[in-house]
């Protein structure tokens, strides 16, 4: 294979030029060539492999720290999350924004609340408007959503109505 490379006209011309150079220039060119080869090996092979190794070690250490923290707080995690990794006793997980919308509208209907308007807000949120609703029923409905389905109130704005105990509410609910 080396013989085929030497038979190429361009390679033959370079070899002839190399042979005509003074001995010191040939040595300098040889040192320069070795330096370039070593530089290419370092920057294209060694450094990327070393960087990958360093990132892998750091990732391993972070994972080990997280595992140690989780083991140290296992009792608290089980208490908060339920013993089987569920959200709590009787809790039902909501998978996405469409399921959240169905859950919110259905539970509002069951609670006797009339939603004036509702719209999705991102992938896992919904904005809800209630007008002139009983405050106690709104509060109980939100508590049931939170404890039973892990729906949280991200933003809330309530305005008092003229009639005591009634409010107009604008909510952003998130899973």
From TrEMBL:
Membrane protein topology class: Single-pass membrane protein
Family from the record: Belongs to the GSP M family.
Organism: Marinobacter salinisoli
Membrane-spanning segments: 28-46
Name of a matching Pfam family: T2SSM
Localization per Swiss-Prot or TrEMBL: Cell inner membrane
Keywords: Cell inner membrane, Cell membrane, Membrane, Protein transport, Transmembrane, Transmembrane helix, Transport
Name of the protein this chain belongs to: Type II secretion system protein M
Function description: Inner membrane component of the type II secretion system required for the energy-dependent secretion of extracellular factors such as proteases and toxins from the periplasm.
